[in-house]
Amino acid sequence: MKVRLLVTETCPKFLWLMLSIFLFSPFIAYAGTLTYLSASCLAIDPLTPTTIYAGTRSGVFKSTDGGGNWTPVNTGLTDLPVASLAIDPLTPDTVYVGTQYGGVFKSTDGGDSWTQVSTGLTDLPVASLAIDPLTPGTVYAGTHYGGIFKSTNGGDSWTQVSIELTGVFIDFLVIDPLTPATIYAGIWNGGIYKSTNEGDSWMEAGTGLTDRQVNSLAIDPFTSTTIYAGTRYGGVFKSTNGGDDWTAVNTGLTDEMSVAYLYKPLHSPHNGFTSSS
């Protein structure tokens, strides 16, 4: 099983480790808890990290005590299989959900209610979401075989910004925290693509990347030209020049590992974490 976690850079290390164990165990929605239902994505409130959202095939669940207890928060969410989550970094009560068939939904009250915000967005599965950290009304959505879409008004309308990337599986999106015009897209069986103009055009960025099945991406929050890529069969790759060149960094990892999550903590820039499946 491949799991993508959307974790804020302010999440404490111990909390991330707890959540990693949680998500890679089976859980299901039952009586407001998670038991035997796999979570496909996760988002943590950047200001209140004990508030966590988990996306599952039964919708969104929310915890306000660091994962101790979970409550379904699906009012207005008409398409329950959730593939991606993103939290507005400046207004954390605003949460976006990418679904399997219904496009994108948005909550402005911490998940209490949801409204579909998919005008201009196809009904293809939305596998990844990324929010501009400086202008959070700008949101990007990566889809299965429909390319990348962009909204500049908080999801009210969407425009396709990746003619080069239609017909591929956009598995992960990440935005440069220091230069948000720079965006990276991890593509299943397609490597990594990069845009330096807010998604208007894309170019391949993958010299040295021997495994083109990219599951996850992470950017160093202090040195944003340093990027890590998790792959299906090749483990972790690292670039120190903004994606121009990549080198495998797998000491301690087996070649067979599928790296589904990468995390570069803000509070500890010399450490990093990876989860595999």
Condensed summary:
The protein is mostly beta strands and 277 residues long. It has 1 helix and 24 strands.
Question: What general form does the structure show?
Answer: globular
The profile of the biggest β sheet is: 4 strands, antiparallel
Q: How would you describe the oligomerization state of the chains in this entry?
A: single chain
Instruction: Give the CA-CA distance, first to last residue.
Output: 6 Å
Q: What CATH first level of the largest domain would be assigned?
A: Mainly Beta
Strand order of the largest sheet: 3-4-5-6
Tell me the count of domains.
2
CATH architecture of the largest domain: 7 Propeller
pLDDT average, as an integer? 81
CATH topology of the largest domain: Methylamine Dehydrogenase, Chain H
Give the proportion of residues in helices.
under 10%
Q: Got a strand count? A: 24
- By helix and strand content, what is the structural category? mainly beta
CATH superfamily of the largest domain: YVTN repeat-like/Quinoprotein amine dehydrogenase
